[in-house]
Amino acid sequence: MMSSKKVCAAMILSSLLWAAGALGGEDYLVEQKDKEFIYKGAKVTTLNIKVGDVVEFKNLDPYFHNVFSLSDVKMFDLGSYPQGKSKSVKFEKSGKVEIECAIHPQMHMIIEVK
Amino acid sequence: MIKFCLPQYVLQGFCLAIAGLFVTGAAVTYPAPQKAIFTLPKEVPAPADNQLTPPRIQLGKMLFFDPRLSGSDVISCATCHNPSLDWADAAPLARGEGLQILPRATPSIINVGFNAFQMWDGRFTSLEEQAWTPMLAAAEMHGLQEAVVLAKLKGMPGYVNAFEKAYPGEGITRNTVAKALASFERTIVSGDAPFDEWVQGDESAVSLSAKRGFQLFTGKANCIACHQGSTFRDQGFHNIGLKGVTDPGRYAIVRIPILRGAFKTPTLRDVARTGPYMHNGAYQTLEQVIDHYDRGGDDKENLDPNMKPLGLTIEEKEDLVEFLKTLSGKQQAVTLPQLPQQQ
After folding, report:
1. Residues of B in contact with A68 (CB under 8 A)
2. CA-to-CA distance for A80 and A67, rounded, in angstroms?
3. Which of the residues of B are catalytic?
4. Closest C-alpha to A59, from A36, A89, A90, A91
5. How many helices (H) and strands (E) does chain A have?
6. Which of A37, B57, B103, B203 has its CA 20 to 30 A from that of B262?
7. How far apart are CA B74 and CA B71, in angstroms?
8. Whole-structure pTM value
9. How many interface pairs between A and B have CB atoms less than 8 angstroms apart?
10. If you average pLDDT over residues B132-150, what whole number do you get?
11. Vertex A96: Cα angle to A90 and A99 (nearest 5)
Protein backbone atom coordinates (compact mmCIF):
# COMPACT_ATOMS: atom_id res chain seq x y z
CA MET A 1 0.00 0.00 0.00
CA MET A 2 1.24 3.47 -0.89
CA SER A 3 1.19 6.07 1.84
CA SER A 4 -1.20 8.97 1.35
CA LYS A 5 1.81 11.28 0.90
CA LYS A 6 3.08 9.15 -1.94
CA VAL A 7 -0.35 9.06 -3.56
CA CYS A 8 -0.56 12.82 -3.24
CA ALA A 9 2.90 13.28 -4.76
CA ALA A 10 1.99 10.95 -7.64
CA MET A 11 -1.16 12.95 -8.31
CA ILE A 12 0.74 16.24 -8.35
CA LEU A 13 3.40 14.76 -10.60
CA SER A 14 0.83 13.38 -13.08
CA SER A 15 -1.00 16.73 -13.12
CA LEU A 16 2.27 18.47 -13.89
CA LEU A 17 3.02 16.00 -16.66
CA TRP A 18 -0.47 16.50 -18.08
CA ALA A 19 -0.03 20.27 -17.97
CA ALA A 20 3.36 20.01 -19.67
CA GLY A 21 1.79 17.88 -22.38
CA ALA A 22 -1.03 20.33 -22.88
CA LEU A 23 1.39 23.21 -23.16
CA GLY A 24 3.42 21.23 -25.70
CA GLY A 25 0.78 21.35 -28.39
CA GLU A 26 -2.84 21.03 -29.41
CA ASP A 27 -4.87 17.85 -29.58
CA TYR A 28 -6.79 16.90 -32.72
CA LEU A 29 -9.43 14.19 -32.91
CA VAL A 30 -9.67 12.31 -36.21
CA GLU A 31 -12.48 9.78 -36.33
CA GLN A 32 -12.66 6.67 -38.50
CA LYS A 33 -16.22 6.30 -39.70
CA ASP A 34 -17.68 4.41 -42.68
CA LYS A 35 -14.11 3.76 -43.79
CA GLU A 36 -13.25 7.46 -43.99
CA PHE A 37 -11.12 9.77 -41.90
CA ILE A 38 -13.41 12.39 -40.36
CA TYR A 39 -12.38 15.68 -38.75
CA LYS A 40 -15.03 17.89 -37.16
CA GLY A 41 -17.82 15.93 -38.83
CA ALA A 42 -16.50 15.98 -42.41
CA LYS A 43 -14.20 13.78 -44.49
CA VAL A 44 -10.66 15.08 -44.16
CA THR A 45 -7.99 14.68 -46.83
CA THR A 46 -5.41 17.09 -45.38
CA LEU A 47 -5.05 18.17 -41.76
CA ASN A 48 -2.72 21.05 -40.90
CA ILE A 49 -1.10 20.85 -37.48
CA LYS A 50 1.99 22.21 -35.74
CA VAL A 51 5.11 20.49 -34.45
CA GLY A 52 4.32 19.04 -31.03
CA ASP A 53 0.61 18.55 -31.71
CA VAL A 54 -1.07 15.24 -30.97
CA VAL A 55 -3.60 13.54 -33.23
CA GLU A 56 -5.96 11.02 -31.69
CA PHE A 57 -7.42 8.47 -34.11
CA LYS A 58 -10.72 7.04 -32.93
CA ASN A 59 -12.49 4.07 -34.51
CA LEU A 60 -16.27 4.57 -34.73
CA ASP A 61 -16.90 1.66 -37.14
CA PRO A 62 -18.16 -1.72 -35.89
CA TYR A 63 -15.01 -3.45 -37.18
CA PHE A 64 -11.29 -3.06 -36.65
CA HIS A 65 -9.21 -0.28 -38.14
CA ASN A 66 -5.51 0.46 -38.35
CA VAL A 67 -3.55 3.65 -38.85
CA PHE A 68 0.01 3.71 -40.10
CA SER A 69 2.51 5.91 -41.87
CA LEU A 70 5.72 4.98 -43.59
CA SER A 71 6.60 8.64 -44.21
CA ASP A 72 10.12 9.76 -43.23
CA VAL A 73 8.72 12.61 -41.11
CA LYS A 74 6.82 10.23 -38.85
CA MET A 75 6.84 6.46 -39.11
CA PHE A 76 4.34 4.57 -36.99
CA ASP A 77 1.90 1.66 -36.94
CA LEU A 78 -1.00 1.64 -34.48
CA GLY A 79 -1.86 -2.05 -35.04
CA SER A 80 -5.56 -2.83 -35.13
CA TYR A 81 -8.17 -1.59 -32.70
CA PRO A 82 -11.95 -1.97 -32.39
CA GLN A 83 -14.94 0.35 -32.26
CA GLY A 84 -14.77 2.94 -29.52
CA LYS A 85 -11.02 2.68 -29.03
CA SER A 86 -8.55 5.35 -29.99
CA LYS A 87 -4.80 5.76 -30.27
CA SER A 88 -2.77 8.95 -30.30
CA VAL A 89 0.32 10.02 -32.19
CA LYS A 90 2.53 13.01 -31.41
CA PHE A 91 4.14 14.71 -34.40
CA GLU A 92 7.57 16.05 -33.46
CA LYS A 93 8.96 16.99 -36.87
CA SER A 94 7.68 19.24 -39.61
CA GLY A 95 6.77 17.91 -43.03
CA LYS A 96 4.16 15.91 -44.90
CA VAL A 97 2.94 12.65 -43.37
CA GLU A 98 0.87 10.21 -45.40
CA ILE A 99 -1.62 8.37 -43.21
CA GLU A 100 -3.45 5.20 -44.22
CA CYS A 101 -5.46 2.34 -42.77
CA ALA A 102 -3.59 -0.83 -43.73
CA ILE A 103 -6.78 -2.88 -43.58
CA HIS A 104 -8.76 -0.47 -45.78
CA PRO A 105 -6.22 1.40 -47.93
CA GLN A 106 -8.88 3.63 -49.46
CA MET A 107 -8.76 5.40 -46.09
CA HIS A 108 -6.00 7.84 -46.79
CA MET A 109 -5.13 11.32 -45.57
CA ILE A 110 -2.23 13.73 -45.28
CA ILE A 111 -1.08 15.44 -42.12
CA GLU A 112 0.91 18.59 -42.81
CA VAL A 113 3.09 19.32 -39.79
CA LYS A 114 4.23 22.97 -39.77
CA MET B 1 -47.42 3.92 -13.06
CA ILE B 2 -47.96 0.27 -13.95
CA LYS B 3 -44.24 -0.32 -14.16
CA PHE B 4 -43.89 0.27 -10.42
CA CYS B 5 -47.06 -1.57 -9.42
CA LEU B 6 -46.46 -4.92 -11.09
CA PRO B 7 -43.93 -7.34 -9.65
CA GLN B 8 -40.91 -7.69 -11.93
CA TYR B 9 -41.56 -11.36 -12.77
CA VAL B 10 -45.00 -10.44 -14.10
CA LEU B 11 -43.42 -7.89 -16.41
CA GLN B 12 -40.77 -10.40 -17.49
CA GLY B 13 -43.44 -12.99 -18.20
CA PHE B 14 -45.39 -10.48 -20.24
CA CYS B 15 -42.29 -9.59 -22.29
CA LEU B 16 -41.47 -13.24 -22.90
CA ALA B 17 -45.03 -13.87 -24.06
CA ILE B 18 -44.79 -10.99 -26.53
CA ALA B 19 -41.41 -12.25 -27.74
CA GLY B 20 -42.93 -15.71 -28.12
CA LEU B 21 -45.59 -14.34 -30.39
CA PHE B 22 -42.91 -13.01 -32.73
CA VAL B 23 -40.92 -16.22 -32.70
CA THR B 24 -43.75 -18.68 -33.13
CA GLY B 25 -46.34 -16.58 -34.93
CA ALA B 26 -46.75 -16.54 -38.68
CA ALA B 27 -46.14 -12.80 -38.66
CA VAL B 28 -42.36 -13.04 -38.40
CA THR B 29 -40.98 -10.46 -40.75
CA TYR B 30 -37.47 -9.65 -41.77
CA PRO B 31 -36.78 -6.11 -42.90
CA ALA B 32 -35.56 -5.89 -46.49
CA PRO B 33 -31.93 -4.81 -46.88
CA GLN B 34 -31.50 -1.06 -47.25
CA LYS B 35 -31.71 0.10 -50.85
CA ALA B 36 -29.13 2.84 -50.39
CA ILE B 37 -26.53 0.36 -49.21
CA PHE B 38 -27.22 -2.77 -51.23
CA THR B 39 -28.19 -1.53 -54.71
CA LEU B 40 -25.40 -2.23 -57.19
CA PRO B 41 -24.48 0.98 -59.06
CA LYS B 42 -25.78 1.04 -62.64
CA GLU B 43 -22.53 2.44 -64.02
CA VAL B 44 -19.05 1.09 -63.58
CA PRO B 45 -16.61 3.96 -63.02
CA ALA B 46 -14.06 4.53 -65.80
CA PRO B 47 -11.13 6.97 -65.90
CA ALA B 48 -11.56 10.28 -67.77
CA ASP B 49 -9.10 9.22 -70.49
CA ASN B 50 -10.75 5.85 -71.02
CA GLN B 51 -14.51 6.32 -71.01
CA LEU B 52 -16.47 3.31 -72.27
CA THR B 53 -17.37 3.28 -75.95
CA PRO B 54 -18.63 0.34 -78.05
CA PRO B 55 -15.43 0.18 -80.20
CA ARG B 56 -13.25 0.10 -77.06
CA ILE B 57 -15.35 -2.64 -75.48
CA GLN B 58 -15.32 -4.64 -78.72
CA LEU B 59 -11.54 -4.32 -79.13
CA GLY B 60 -11.02 -5.27 -75.48
CA LYS B 61 -13.15 -8.34 -76.00
CA MET B 62 -11.07 -9.39 -79.00
CA LEU B 63 -7.86 -9.05 -77.00
CA PHE B 64 -9.41 -10.83 -74.01
CA PHE B 65 -10.26 -13.90 -76.09
CA ASP B 66 -7.14 -13.90 -78.26
CA PRO B 67 -4.71 -16.71 -77.34
CA ARG B 68 -2.05 -15.19 -79.58
CA LEU B 69 -1.25 -12.68 -76.83
CA SER B 70 0.51 -15.59 -75.09
CA GLY B 71 3.90 -17.01 -75.96
CA SER B 72 2.40 -20.43 -76.59
CA ASP B 73 -0.41 -19.02 -78.76
CA VAL B 74 -2.90 -21.10 -76.79
CA ILE B 75 -3.60 -19.16 -73.56
CA SER B 76 -5.91 -16.16 -73.56
CA CYS B 77 -7.27 -14.15 -70.64
CA ALA B 78 -10.45 -16.22 -71.08
CA THR B 79 -8.55 -19.48 -70.54
CA CYS B 80 -8.53 -18.79 -66.80
CA HIS B 81 -11.29 -16.17 -66.68
CA ASN B 82 -13.71 -18.40 -68.53
CA PRO B 83 -17.17 -16.84 -69.02
CA SER B 84 -18.74 -20.31 -68.93
CA LEU B 85 -17.36 -20.70 -65.41
CA ASP B 86 -18.47 -17.29 -64.21
CA TRP B 87 -15.22 -15.70 -65.38
CA ALA B 88 -13.01 -18.03 -63.35
CA ASP B 89 -11.64 -21.55 -63.85
CA ALA B 90 -13.38 -23.72 -61.22
CA ALA B 91 -9.97 -24.94 -60.05
CA PRO B 92 -8.46 -24.55 -56.55
CA LEU B 93 -5.35 -22.91 -57.99
CA ALA B 94 -4.73 -21.23 -61.33
CA ARG B 95 -2.84 -23.09 -64.04
CA GLY B 96 -0.47 -21.26 -66.30
CA GLU B 97 2.05 -21.94 -69.02
CA GLY B 98 2.60 -25.69 -69.51
CA LEU B 99 -0.26 -26.34 -67.06
CA GLN B 100 1.97 -25.42 -64.14
CA ILE B 101 0.08 -24.79 -60.91
CA LEU B 102 0.29 -21.17 -59.81
CA PRO B 103 0.37 -20.14 -56.13
CA ARG B 104 -3.05 -18.47 -56.00
CA ALA B 105 -6.57 -19.16 -57.25
CA THR B 106 -8.01 -17.47 -60.32
CA PRO B 107 -10.48 -14.90 -59.02
CA SER B 108 -13.68 -14.39 -60.98
CA ILE B 109 -13.51 -11.03 -62.68
CA ILE B 110 -17.18 -10.38 -62.20
CA ASN B 111 -17.64 -6.76 -60.99
CA VAL B 112 -13.90 -6.18 -61.22
CA GLY B 113 -14.62 -2.66 -62.48
CA PHE B 114 -15.88 -1.73 -59.02
CA ASN B 115 -12.59 -2.76 -57.38
CA ALA B 116 -10.30 -0.11 -55.95
CA PHE B 117 -7.52 -2.71 -55.86
CA GLN B 118 -6.74 -5.47 -58.35
CA MET B 119 -5.13 -8.87 -57.66
CA TRP B 120 -5.38 -10.86 -54.40
CA ASP B 121 -2.71 -8.61 -52.87
CA GLY B 122 -4.18 -5.42 -54.32
CA ARG B 123 -0.94 -4.32 -55.92
CA PHE B 124 -2.65 -2.49 -58.78
CA THR B 125 -5.14 0.30 -58.34
CA SER B 126 -6.60 0.20 -61.85
CA LEU B 127 -7.54 -2.35 -64.48
CA GLU B 128 -5.29 -0.50 -66.93
CA GLU B 129 -2.29 -1.03 -64.64
CA GLN B 130 -3.13 -4.69 -64.19
CA ALA B 131 -3.85 -5.62 -67.82
CA TRP B 132 -0.35 -6.54 -69.00
CA THR B 133 0.74 -8.53 -65.94
CA PRO B 134 -0.43 -12.02 -66.97
CA MET B 135 0.84 -11.51 -70.53
CA LEU B 136 4.33 -10.59 -69.35
CA ALA B 137 4.55 -13.27 -66.63
CA ALA B 138 6.55 -16.32 -67.72
CA ALA B 139 4.48 -18.64 -65.50
CA GLU B 140 1.14 -17.34 -66.75
CA MET B 141 1.00 -16.56 -70.49
CA HIS B 142 4.60 -17.48 -71.27
CA GLY B 143 5.90 -13.98 -70.89
CA LEU B 144 6.30 -12.53 -74.34
CA GLN B 145 8.12 -9.21 -74.49
CA GLU B 146 5.74 -6.29 -74.73
CA ALA B 147 7.26 -5.33 -78.09
CA VAL B 148 6.60 -8.83 -79.46
CA VAL B 149 2.93 -8.68 -78.46
CA LEU B 150 2.56 -5.24 -80.02
CA ALA B 151 4.29 -6.41 -83.23
CA LYS B 152 1.93 -9.39 -83.46
CA LEU B 153 -1.09 -7.08 -83.19
CA LYS B 154 0.33 -4.59 -85.69
CA GLY B 155 0.73 -7.45 -88.17
CA MET B 156 -3.04 -7.95 -88.32
CA PRO B 157 -4.97 -5.28 -90.27
CA GLY B 158 -8.14 -6.24 -88.42
CA TYR B 159 -6.51 -5.10 -85.19
CA VAL B 160 -4.99 -1.97 -86.76
CA ASN B 161 -8.52 -0.93 -87.79
CA ALA B 162 -10.06 -1.85 -84.46
CA PHE B 163 -7.46 0.17 -82.54
CA GLU B 164 -7.96 3.14 -84.85
CA LYS B 165 -11.72 3.03 -84.24
CA ALA B 166 -11.33 2.66 -80.49
CA TYR B 167 -8.44 5.07 -79.90
CA PRO B 168 -8.13 7.28 -82.99
CA GLY B 169 -4.57 8.41 -83.63
CA GLU B 170 -3.16 6.67 -80.53
CA GLY B 171 -1.84 3.59 -82.33
CA ILE B 172 -1.21 0.12 -80.98
CA THR B 173 0.73 0.71 -77.78
CA ARG B 174 1.11 -0.63 -74.26
CA ASN B 175 -1.42 2.00 -73.21
CA THR B 176 -4.11 1.34 -75.79
CA VAL B 177 -3.92 -2.45 -75.27
CA ALA B 178 -4.35 -1.94 -71.51
CA LYS B 179 -7.16 0.57 -71.96
CA ALA B 180 -9.09 -1.69 -74.34
CA LEU B 181 -8.80 -4.72 -72.04
CA ALA B 182 -9.90 -2.60 -69.08
CA SER B 183 -12.88 -1.31 -71.07
CA PHE B 184 -14.11 -4.84 -71.80
CA GLU B 185 -13.57 -5.90 -68.18
CA ARG B 186 -15.72 -2.99 -67.01
CA THR B 187 -18.66 -4.56 -68.82
CA ILE B 188 -18.40 -7.81 -66.86
CA VAL B 189 -20.90 -7.15 -64.12
CA SER B 190 -23.22 -9.40 -62.19
CA GLY B 191 -26.83 -9.38 -63.25
CA ASP B 192 -29.89 -8.86 -61.09
CA ALA B 193 -30.10 -11.51 -58.38
CA PRO B 194 -33.04 -12.60 -56.21
CA PHE B 195 -31.36 -10.58 -53.45
CA ASP B 196 -31.67 -7.43 -55.58
CA GLU B 197 -35.36 -8.07 -56.13
CA TRP B 198 -35.77 -8.36 -52.37
CA VAL B 199 -33.86 -5.08 -51.91
CA GLN B 200 -36.30 -3.49 -54.37
CA GLY B 201 -39.20 -4.65 -52.21
CA ASP B 202 -40.25 -8.05 -53.57
CA GLU B 203 -40.65 -10.03 -50.36
CA SER B 204 -41.27 -13.25 -52.28
CA ALA B 205 -37.97 -13.07 -54.18
CA VAL B 206 -36.03 -14.95 -51.51
CA SER B 207 -36.95 -17.68 -49.04
CA LEU B 208 -37.51 -17.23 -45.32
CA SER B 209 -34.32 -19.20 -44.74
CA ALA B 210 -32.36 -16.74 -46.92
CA LYS B 211 -33.87 -13.82 -44.99
CA ARG B 212 -32.77 -15.39 -41.73
CA GLY B 213 -29.39 -15.92 -43.37
CA PHE B 214 -29.11 -12.23 -44.18
CA GLN B 215 -29.89 -11.37 -40.56
CA LEU B 216 -27.12 -13.73 -39.45
CA PHE B 217 -24.81 -12.31 -42.13
CA THR B 218 -25.24 -8.80 -40.75
CA GLY B 219 -25.59 -9.91 -37.13
CA LYS B 220 -24.41 -12.98 -35.25
CA ALA B 221 -22.09 -14.27 -37.99
CA ASN B 222 -20.68 -10.75 -38.57
CA CYS B 223 -19.79 -11.46 -42.21
CA ILE B 224 -20.59 -7.79 -42.74
CA ALA B 225 -17.38 -6.81 -40.93
CA CYS B 226 -15.64 -7.41 -44.27
CA HIS B 227 -18.30 -8.25 -46.88
CA GLN B 228 -19.95 -4.84 -47.08
CA GLY B 229 -22.09 -2.85 -49.47
CA SER B 230 -23.65 -3.77 -52.78
CA THR B 231 -20.67 -5.83 -53.95
CA PHE B 232 -20.21 -7.42 -50.53
CA ARG B 233 -16.62 -6.50 -49.98
CA ASP B 234 -14.79 -3.75 -48.11
CA GLN B 235 -11.92 -3.03 -50.52
CA GLY B 236 -9.85 -4.34 -47.62
CA PHE B 237 -7.27 -6.97 -46.69
CA HIS B 238 -7.59 -9.59 -43.97
CA ASN B 239 -5.81 -12.66 -42.65
CA ILE B 240 -8.67 -15.11 -42.16
CA GLY B 241 -6.61 -17.89 -40.57
CA LEU B 242 -6.42 -20.46 -43.34
CA LYS B 243 -4.26 -23.49 -42.57
CA GLY B 244 -0.67 -23.68 -43.79
CA VAL B 245 -0.46 -20.35 -45.63
CA THR B 246 3.12 -19.17 -46.21
CA ASP B 247 2.20 -16.63 -48.89
CA PRO B 248 2.79 -13.16 -47.37
CA GLY B 249 -0.15 -11.72 -49.34
CA ARG B 250 -0.63 -7.98 -48.91
CA TYR B 251 2.45 -7.79 -46.63
CA ALA B 252 4.66 -8.16 -49.71
CA ILE B 253 3.18 -4.86 -50.95
CA VAL B 254 2.72 -2.94 -47.68
CA ARG B 255 5.12 -3.86 -44.87
CA ILE B 256 2.74 -3.56 -41.95
CA PRO B 257 2.70 -6.66 -39.67
CA ILE B 258 -1.10 -7.08 -39.53
CA LEU B 259 -1.01 -7.58 -43.31
CA ARG B 260 1.10 -10.73 -43.16
CA GLY B 261 -1.03 -13.42 -44.77
CA ALA B 262 -3.80 -10.92 -45.52
CA PHE B 263 -5.62 -11.03 -48.86
CA LYS B 264 -8.23 -8.91 -50.55
CA THR B 265 -11.84 -9.46 -49.55
CA PRO B 266 -13.53 -10.90 -52.66
CA THR B 267 -17.01 -9.94 -53.80
CA LEU B 268 -19.79 -12.34 -52.85
CA ARG B 269 -21.84 -11.57 -55.96
CA ASP B 270 -22.34 -14.87 -57.83
CA VAL B 271 -20.43 -16.61 -55.05
CA ALA B 272 -22.39 -19.86 -55.38
CA ARG B 273 -20.98 -20.16 -58.92
CA THR B 274 -17.36 -19.23 -58.24
CA GLY B 275 -15.95 -22.05 -56.12
CA PRO B 276 -13.45 -23.28 -55.04
CA TYR B 277 -13.08 -20.55 -52.45
CA MET B 278 -10.34 -18.46 -50.80
CA HIS B 279 -7.12 -17.13 -52.34
CA ASN B 280 -5.64 -20.64 -52.25
CA GLY B 281 -8.75 -22.59 -53.22
CA ALA B 282 -8.82 -24.20 -49.77
CA TYR B 283 -12.55 -24.96 -49.81
CA GLN B 284 -14.75 -26.58 -52.42
CA THR B 285 -18.14 -25.64 -51.02
CA LEU B 286 -19.88 -22.74 -49.31
CA GLU B 287 -20.68 -25.07 -46.41
CA GLN B 288 -16.95 -25.58 -45.83
CA VAL B 289 -16.42 -21.82 -45.97
CA ILE B 290 -19.13 -21.22 -43.35
CA ASP B 291 -17.58 -23.93 -41.15
CA HIS B 292 -14.22 -22.17 -41.42
CA TYR B 293 -15.70 -18.90 -40.17
CA ASP B 294 -17.75 -20.73 -37.52
CA ARG B 295 -14.46 -22.09 -36.13
CA GLY B 296 -13.11 -18.53 -36.12
CA GLY B 297 -10.39 -19.57 -38.55
CA ASP B 298 -7.76 -22.28 -38.02
CA ASP B 299 -4.31 -20.69 -37.92
CA LYS B 300 -4.54 -18.05 -35.20
CA GLU B 301 -1.20 -16.41 -35.94
CA ASN B 302 -1.78 -12.84 -37.09
CA LEU B 303 -5.48 -13.63 -37.40
CA ASP B 304 -7.75 -10.70 -38.24
CA PRO B 305 -9.31 -9.68 -34.90
CA ASN B 306 -12.78 -9.53 -36.49
CA MET B 307 -12.56 -13.34 -36.66
CA LYS B 308 -14.15 -15.09 -33.65
CA PRO B 309 -15.77 -18.51 -33.16
CA LEU B 310 -19.44 -17.99 -34.00
CA GLY B 311 -21.29 -20.86 -32.37
CA LEU B 312 -23.67 -21.26 -35.32
CA THR B 313 -26.29 -24.00 -35.25
CA ILE B 314 -26.74 -26.36 -38.20
CA GLU B 315 -29.89 -24.45 -39.19
CA GLU B 316 -28.09 -21.12 -39.02
CA LYS B 317 -25.32 -22.42 -41.27
CA GLU B 318 -27.94 -23.61 -43.76
CA ASP B 319 -29.62 -20.20 -43.63
CA LEU B 320 -26.34 -18.45 -44.40
CA VAL B 321 -25.75 -20.67 -47.43
CA GLU B 322 -29.32 -20.05 -48.59
CA PHE B 323 -28.70 -16.33 -48.33
CA LEU B 324 -25.42 -16.54 -50.28
CA LYS B 325 -27.22 -18.38 -53.09
CA THR B 326 -29.57 -15.41 -53.49
CA LEU B 327 -26.58 -13.37 -54.70
CA SER B 328 -26.37 -15.34 -57.97
CA GLY B 329 -27.40 -12.93 -60.70
CA LYS B 330 -28.85 -13.50 -64.15
CA GLN B 331 -25.93 -14.43 -66.35
CA GLN B 332 -24.93 -12.27 -69.30
CA ALA B 333 -25.09 -13.90 -72.70
CA VAL B 334 -21.57 -13.79 -74.08
CA THR B 335 -20.98 -13.78 -77.80
CA LEU B 336 -17.51 -14.69 -78.91
CA PRO B 337 -15.65 -12.16 -81.06
CA GLN B 338 -14.30 -12.96 -84.50
CA LEU B 339 -10.53 -12.50 -84.25
CA PRO B 340 -8.46 -10.90 -87.03
CA GLN B 341 -6.19 -13.14 -89.07
CA GLN B 342 -2.51 -12.61 -89.84
CA GLN B 343 -1.95 -11.32 -93.39
Report:
1. 256
2. 8
3. 140
4. A36
5. 1, 10
6. A37
7. 8
8. 0.88
9. 47
10. 90
11. 65
